[in-house]
Amino acid sequence: MYIQYIAMQDNTNAILDPQEWENKLLCYIGMLETMAVFDDWRLVLGSLLQPIPFPNDAIAHELFTSKMKNVIRYIAGDTHCDVHSTILGIREGKEGWFHLYVPGNIGCDDEGELWGLMLKTLLNCCCRRRKFLSELNKMMGPIMLLALRENEAAMEALCAMLELDVVESNDVKMQMVTTLQSTSTGKRMYAELCERQIALRELQQKGGPKKLTLPSKSTDTDLSKMLSSGSFGNLECLSLAFTNVTSACANDLIKLPSLRYLNLWSTQFGDVGVQMISEHLHKLQVLNLCETPVTDKGLVCLSW
Asked: How far apart are CA 141 and CA 120, in angstroms?
């Protein structure tokens, strides 16, 4: 799938005319864009493009990276994880389209608009979130730049990195906080983060029962009210079996630092919830997911 570049020769050893090469390039990318329009073609197309199968001369060419943006935009905006994850490198250490279009890199000619879309999609993805946020440390400059320009995905990334504590340097953390407080939206998002952290510290205070079972048909709201009624820092065993809780209750579950046993049998707890508890409940030993909508995508999170 290599594109012939101006400096490359064809089979007759004649150098391609610049206009002829441009026409061929536009035709080629036009075909890729046509394929990207169709939902059922994107997975195959994304998989083919994931290793960026083009020579360095093409990737360094402004026309090529500019015209490829529409193709990558379709792939990056797809809601299916298998599709939009193809904008990442095919293996660790191998950069992907997400890296090519980062602000300041050779492919970015739109002040980060396309990269912001990629970032938003990946942040909302239900898999590899903590690992992904850790890798964003390498892109801290572009993220803070977009946050200053009031890009909400960039601000969300900064808050998530602070909340999951994936940044080691205190100086960098202070720069992140300063960046967030530089805009009204950033201030609001940071204030919400601080409120969550305060609530987390209060809930994690030692005390309370070691075992708790909610009545059947209890909801996310019921669980939240229960956990806000006292200290549950000692809670080790929680049964939510046959209740109506969903993944939304994960926001409360991750505040239970001592939890070792969690029974979610016959609930509506799904992949997003599993992803959250896998990142926070490090002492969890037993997790019952019988008769839940959890799929292979969610189970993968438990293997990290």
From this structure: 17
How distant, in Å, are the alpha carbons of 8, 16, 58, 75, 109 from that of 12? 11, 10, 21, 36, 35
Dihedral, 34, 39, 41, 46 alpha carbons, nearest 10: 90
Q: How many C-beta atoms surround the C-beta of residue 45 within 10 A? A: 19
Q: Considering only CA atoms, give the Rg of the chain.
A: 23
Distances 228 to 28, 92, 208, 233 between C-alpha atoms, Å: 59, 41, 12, 12
In a 13 Å sphere around the CA of 57, the CA atoms on its Cβ side amount to: 8
> Per-residue pLDDT tens for 136-175?
999 998 999 899 989 999 999 999 999 888 998 888 999 9
Alpha helix ranges (H) inside 164-249: 170-180, 184-203, 220-227
DSSP 107-167: T--STTHHHHHHHHHHHT-SSSHHHHHHHGGGGHHHHHHHHHTT-HHHHHHHHHHHHTT--
C-beta of residue 120 within 8 angstroms of C-beta of residue 77: no
From its phi and psi, is residue 221 left (phi > 0), alpha (psi between -120 and 50) or beta?
alpha
Q: What is the pTM of this model?
A: 0.72
Residue 266: both structure tokens together: 């016959």
One-letter amino acid of 47: S
d(CA 85, CA 90): 9
- From the CB of residue 296, how many other CB atoms can be counted at a distance below 10 Å? 7
